[in-house]
Amino acid sequence: MAxxxxxxxxxxxxxxxxxxxxxxxxxxxxxxxxxxxxxxxVRPLVDFYSTDPADLDWQIDDPIERERLKAxxxxxxxxxxxxxxRTVHALLQALAEPKARIPxxxxxxxxxxxxxxxxxxxxxxxxxxxGVSFYLDNEM
Length: 140
Description:
mainly alpha, 5 helices, two-stranded antiparallel ribbon, globular
């Protein structure tokens, strides 16, 4: 099963419908993609990554290792939607440029990435309108 990037909100966001974001999940920790977003003058998407330590309960069998990692992670960190919207909008503008040289891994197309970013933007706009913070996480 492939990972999918998900938006996690501090509280429910009315009107948000989650969808698959496998291309973004593949790019989230890609150093070339981070460098590309830096050239655009915005924060990389990985800056908005966090995870709920409770998610480790079903991922790690060894209870000692699991608790050690939970302590290291600390609580999930939430971010204002506005901050990530700057990055998403900059990436969408770059994708609209015919000569854009966005570093994409195999099986991730510019059109597919644009669709995923539009879905993220819609969720973030709804969260912003409702005053709800968020973080990005990978879902297996």
